[in-house]
TrEMBL record, chains C, D:
Pfam families: NifU_N
One of the protein's GO biological processes: iron-sulfur cluster assembly
PANTHER family referenced in this protein's UniProt entry, alphabetically: IRON-SULFUR CLUSTER ASSEMBLY ENZYME NIFU HOMOLOG
Domain NIF system FeS cluster assembly NifU N-terminal: 1-123
Protein name: Iron-sulfur cluster assembly scaffold protein IscU
GO molecular function: iron ion binding; iron-sulfur cluster binding
Entries under InterPro entries matching the protein: NIF_FeS_clus_asmbl_NifU-like, NIF_FeS_clus_asmbl_NifU_N
Amino acid sequence: MRRVYLDHSATTPVRPEVLEAMLPFLKDEAFGNPSTIYSYGREAKKALDEAREKVASLIGARPEEIFFTSGGTEADNLALIGTAAANEKKGRHIITSSIEHHAVLHTAQYLMRHGFKITFLPVTPEGLVRVEDVEEAITDETILISVMHVNNEVGTIQPIKEIGHLARERGIIFHTDAVQSVGKIPVNVDELNVDLLSASSHKIYGPKGVGCLYIRKGTRINPILHGGAQERKRRPGTENMPGIVGFGRAAELAGQELDSEMERLKGLRDKLIDGIMNRIEDVQLNGDREKRVATNANFSFRYVEGESLLLSLDMKGICASSGSACTSGSLDPSHVLLAMGIPHEVAHGSVRMTLGRDNTEADIDYVLEVMPEIVARLRSMSPLYNQ
Amino acid sequence: MRRVYLDHSATTPVRPEVLEAMLPFLKDEAFGNPSTIYSYGREAKKALDEAREKVASLIGARPEEIFFTSGGTEADNLALIGTAAANEKKGRHIITSSIEHHAVLHTAQYLMRHGFKITFLPVTPEGLVRVEDVEEAITDETILISVMHVNNEVGTIQPIKEIGHLARERGIIFHTDAVQSVGKIPVNVDELNVDLLSASSHKIYGPKGVGCLYIRKGTRINPILHGGAQERKRRPGTENMPGIVGFGRAAELAGQELDSEMERLKGLRDKLIDGIMNRIEDVQLNGDREKRVATNANFSFRYVEGESLLLSLDMKGICASSGSACTSGSLDPSHVLLAMGIPHEVAHGSVRMTLGRDNTEADIDYVLEVMPEIVARLRSMSPLYNQ
Amino acid sequence: MYSEKVMDHFTNPRNVGEIENPSGVGEVGNPVCGDIMRLYIQVEDGIIKDVKFKTFGCGAAIATSSMVTEMVKGKTIEEALKISNKAVAEALDGLPAQKMHCSNLAADALHKAIEDYQNKSKKAS
Amino acid sequence: MYSEKVMDHFTNPRNVGEIENPSGVGEVGNPVCGDIMRLYIQVEDGIIKDVKFKTFGCGAAIATSSMVTEMVKGKTIEEALKISNKAVAEALDGLPAQKMHCSNLAADALHKAIEDYQNKSKKAS
Ligand SMILES: Cc1ncc(COP(=O)(O)O)c(C=O)c1O
Ligand SMILES: Cc1ncc(COP(=O)(O)O)c(C=O)c1O
Ligand code: FES
Ligand code: FES
């Protein structure tokens, strides 16, 4: 059976070039601890520095502003909790959006339980944060603004540059969760006016379990983990050398291929979106059509529930994900779709398809071929649907 | 030149069998996100469960009591901060020792800055915590005792079982940092009476960047990172699949070979200790000779400074580490040696050699051959030494 | 995640559809997730001769719907009333923990359909 | 971590040893890490004819000790007094940031040795 992987926003396979770069660190060739002074350790230190340069270069930062973490989640936690702890004397108000990833959302809620005031900004029906809303939300107490760059569910690109401009004017620290934008659209920390930026390796064909927080020089932030002096005392623990080296290589490749892949995937995505909309009735595209990353398509199929759609797709070899309540442990449908004002029952029938390097034109043709049957079959079982 | 790696307590190379187990997760064979429902994801979930079983089995725990983290440091932080946060209404007193790894020590100090009272227990000159001292330190406010199982610098094995017994009697949560004992001596959470136990993969020939916290069922503990629902809501973030699978395989192999390796390494270690003590004057062994892990030797060479000793060893292809001020960023010599009452200048000349799978009898012979020359050369340069 | 039995009933659900002029209809919505199921029964001489369903819901919801229709066909009303959520889940070789609530849909819809039938019968008599 | 020059001076340190009846001796302890250096000079006609050291310290401490003895040999007292910590570190192609304090040892010991020589000369004259 054909296998079509359309869940690249969930995770991506490690590229062969990346694995190759990692292998010496997974053998006894180069296993040293970079904190040690003997030759094994010095080799590791060198590799660590190189990886840091590569990641820095992808986002226009300086190497010493990159702090490796165990992933996007830890980077987000460090950004929010670390900034809150270091600046609480200045104020206890934080602004974020209602469509953030749980790594930001739940961390903000944690801070709320610890005496911080959090503004969760609304979004437009297209899934965009309004700069005016940010401006209005700012108070003298505001110490941090955290708005994601690209939304992981609907792929919308937020007005980070403009929000960053505002934050800078007001002297407020600005964080963006760029886990879904790095490697997919151009990201430059200076152009975006951000002080903190989270990225994750496994979204860009690097290994899982590694990510980083960019911290602009001079930004006040405390560590959230305590221990050794690694990562310039901001993130303790023996460095995940194979992971970090893999992340570095993945970042390097992502930078080289960014323009061409963006172009190619945009073509495939548009074909997918147009194909689905033309072939199937009662379907809507979620998220702004223009301000959208090239890899994301997100549909709601009326009268159909998302998990059963996913299972049906899986039986045809297609991997996708959904914003349905039934696939989420919490049994609430996607908070992102709800924040966009999409009714519960429509959100319930949503499917996200996210494209990547391995996808071809033929993959899209295949999806367009099987999707109508699947939807029709499920609708024929649905008590909500009347032909 | 001969290479002799004697820093296995710092980190170990990944075993070939472990790499083999990891490889499918570093290729596009099995890269799925275990939280997804399609087939790729289900395969990942299965591998995750298997790894959890293997790690659980090595320490006599149930799989659902194993929570994967990014390493030993995060496990220690989760144990201390998570327990403190969940139990602070019961009391704000924590007991730990003065010879803990920085991952515990600095976390305890962080909690101290946040209103917790911390008792740092002293140790005997042999580097052992006294059970009576623990008993005396307990108050009605005590919510957590954290004492490491095997010390990473001097290899002493602490009376965990007895402390655990005390803790259980008094209804106090008991954590042990077992990063240096798991895979090196038998560890069983029930026999040891522990509620929380930290372990790290890269110390047992698994990959860096992964570890776990064992949490006994029913133990009150809060997460320290916030985000997705992974690890039964106790540790969010996309799972480090290759790392976790590697950790699982490493744990399995460590369990199988524990007895035979322990016996073999004990022989090598005794040969090393006796050889050094016989061949070189003015040298002392640090740490109890009997209650000591089979892999550790730690010497203080009078009149010689540790870093220059390490550099000299490195030039002969020997990798070791030291408790000298000059190798530590902080420029204080090892807090462990100081806590054992070893004078600053003696601690300054200490070298730790930690044995592992790859070491042979011939390695020890080589070390015993070159060490006397090196020490003699440095002593001849030392203003403190008079032949 | 799902057992083979669940996947079988999901892929080839038995008794999908509607019954015209049924003896009873039960419709329930799952308050936890928002899924919906409608179940039709045709009763003759106290025996459930025919049963059909329509479900808007997850894989488990569809599979349990299908399974309950199989379990109930040919049973007396009394026997049918004894079919519990647990029994449906067990007949499917179990459901994942976070999906146990889905099995409520099917049994509840069945019991509502029987109630509807009994109410109608009372009125008729 | 260390430059090749540092490693060279660490491996083959120049002028290790003591001078019997030296013109001056300087001993300093590094308050930061506890390392110790002793430096002997032999002065003739205002020129440092010979110099020796003994150091208990890290690789950087030994290398800077060795380097400073090389730099000072054959220099006049005035020239020697101008040798700064920075100059020693530079002559070694630099030191890692956390090792810059080590270079203090060598220059300080030198200046102390000269001071000792000058005190002795004063007493003698
Ligand atoms: C926008 C966003 N932020 C954060 C994360 C968390 O990253 P990680 O899985 O590396 O912890 C993800 C992905 O899961 C994401 O899509
Ligand atoms: C006793 C002890 N605890 C904790 C750690 C930290 O483990 P990790 O390096 O995996 O963060 C180490 C090793 O560095 C250790 O030896
Ligand atoms: S019925 Fe909605 S989750 Fe199963
Ligand atoms: S002199 Fe002690 S660290 Fe260099």
